[in-house]
Amino acid sequence: MYNKKIPTDLNCGFRIAIEVIGGKWKPYIVYELLSGPKRPSELRRRMPRIKSISS
């Protein structure tokens, strides 16, 4: 089981936001979804560098 090395500070809104949207592809996915809902296949076509969004 994975244990985080840096504890989450729940008193800081910015840290919470980074915890939620942090990751390799999440910010890019959020950016793509700003223009409206998309199917997973649409997201994959817009991001050709990745093979699967779930990995």
Overall 3D form: elongated
Poorly predicted ranges (pLDDT <50, ≥5 residues)? Answer: none
> Could you report the average pLDDT, rounded to the nearest whole number?
75
- Give, in order, the helices and strands: HHH
| Helix/sheet category | mainly alpha
Radius of gyration: 14 Å
How helix-rich are the residues, as a percent range?
40-55%
Largest sheet: none
| Separation of the first and last Cα atoms | 18 Å
Number of DSSP E strands: 0
Strand content: under 5%
- Helical segment count: 3
Q: Could you write a compact summary of the structure shown?
A:
The chain is mainly α and 55 residues long.
Task: Please describe the structure with a list of short key phrases separated by commas or semicolons.
about 55 residues; mainly alpha; 3 helices; about 0% strand
Overall description:
With 55 residues, the chain is mostly helical. It contains 3 helices and no strands. It has helices at 13-21, 26-33, 40-46. The radius of gyration is 14 Å and the shape is elongated.
List the helices and strands and how they pair.
Blueprint: H1 13-21, H2 26-33, H3 40-46
